[in-house]
Amino acid sequence: MTETTVVHLLRHGEVYNPAGVLYGRLPGYHLSDNGRAMAEMVAKSIAGRDITEIWSSPMERAQETAAPCAEALGGIEVTLDERLQEATNVFEGKKFAGWVFRDPRNFWHIRDPRRPSWGEAYVDVVARMKSVIDSARAAVRGHEVLLVSHQMPIWIIRLAAENRRLWHDPRRRQCALASLTSFTFEGERLVTVGYTEPAAVLLKGNPLPGS
């Protein structure tokens, strides 16, 4: 019989960000009250699953999302992994608005949306996300694992897994706050990609792509 292994990619919950900046990898950004409620809802939704390990991006918002899940699963220790990090972005710390695309000083950064030229290349994101998924899958073979990451890395590895073009419109990503993108493997073979939103009732929209 072929072993079934499931890798769940969980996007972190809503972040307290009153200034509306693109925070990317900047430190000091934590879950809002609503984000903490999202994390609790996800924890309740996975409490009965066969998740034996939890790995997380080292960013505060990811660790805070992972914490109630770890508790709900019997106090599993959360492993931090840099490969689950947010993608780099030259616009970190700035408000993300239409002026970014009209300011001549930014033209060099937005010259090639297919790479993209403003941050980490999509192919590099795919490589590190595939690496961490393969490592986690090997660690829990025959069980399930929860990886807490960020919107852009999760969406990009899903596009790659589904053999779709990596270049895309960030506004059309199917990766809401506190959503689960689940890869099911039979042995070494990926057989299905699923998507759920355990905290959908708490979603207010997310105007900052790639967070």
Automatic annotation (TrEMBL):
<dbReference type="InterPro" id="IPR029033">
    <property type="entry name" value="His_PPase_superfam"/>
</dbReference>
<protein>
    <submittedName>
        <fullName>Phosphoglycerate mutase</fullName>
    </submittedName>
</protein>
<dbReference type="InterPro" id="IPR050275">
    <property type="entry name" value="PGM_Phosphatase"/>
</dbReference>
<dbReference type="GO" id="GO:0005737">
    <property type="term" value="C:cytoplasm"/>
</dbReference>
<dbReference type="InterPro" id="IPR013078">
    <property type="entry name" value="His_Pase_superF_clade-1"/>
</dbReference>
<dbReference type="Pfam" id="PF00300">
    <property type="entry name" value="His_Phos_1"/>
</dbReference>
<dbReference type="GO" id="GO:0016791">
    <property type="term" value="F:phosphatase activity"/>
</dbReference>
